[in-house]
Amino acid sequence: MSGGGDDLSKQPVTGLVLAGGMSIRLGQDKTRLRLHGEAGQDMLLRTARLLESVTPVVWISCRPGSPRPVDRCACIYDDADNMGPFGGVFAALRQAGGPVLALSCDLPFMDKGTLERLLERRQNRPPHVVMTTYLRQETGFIESLVAVYEYAALPYFERAMCEGRRRLNRVVPPAARADISYGQSEALAFFNINHPSDLETALRIMETL
Predict the structure, then answer these.
(1) Cα–Cα distance for residue pair 161/5, rounded to 1 Å
(2) For residues 117 and 125, is the Cβ–Cβ distance under 8 A?
(3) How many domains are there within the chain?
(4) Do residues 131 and 172 make contact, with C-beta atoms less than 8 angstroms apart?
(5) How many CA atoms lie within 13 A of 106 on its CB side?
(6) Looking at the domain assignment, is residue 2 inside a domain?
(7) What is the per-residue pLDDT across 120-161, written as a single tens digit (0 to 9) for each?
(8) Does 70 fall in a domain?
(9) When comparing pLDDT for 24 and 2, which is higher?
(10) Which pTM was predicted?
(11) SS3 197
(12) Nearest-angstrom CA–CA distance, 142 and 168
């Protein structure tokens, strides 16, 4: 599989808000959560605006009927149902024809600096690398929902599709990734809200900031 050293890798990065989930575990639509009190911004709008601060174009990975549109952001729909974030990134890569910065909409402490650091690492990646992301030192877990996927990653997605694999963190092998290692002191940016207890924790943390 080819790397990211061709002309396609020079195209501008498209931002992609991953917002097509059902929020079943949380019990409410996480895109509508308002945790910051930032001029009425909910999680969907906040994530879109974050991406707009570092990428020239932002799309939203949607499922029909939800979430509602965001100004200046087109909705991108999966080609098939029930594929999760895998389907959102797959569809965006094919439509963009270039690199995609995917960002989950349930990260209340994500910040511009973290995204800029990711894009800087991507800019300096080896030619064979098709995915740039963060890696947690203590666990070896990669942040596949905060990652840049090159257009040259498409063959990996196609192979995963054929093999019935939908885990986004297992699509691109380590040899084709560029990772930024981070530890506990930098982990807050990657705190995500999946369960009611996560929401309670996020609200408590915000009271201390």
Answers:
(1) 24
(2) no
(3) 1
(4) yes
(5) 22
(6) no
(7) 999 999 999 999 999 999 999 999 999 999 999 999 999 999
(8) yes
(9) 24
(10) 0.89
(11) helix
(12) 10
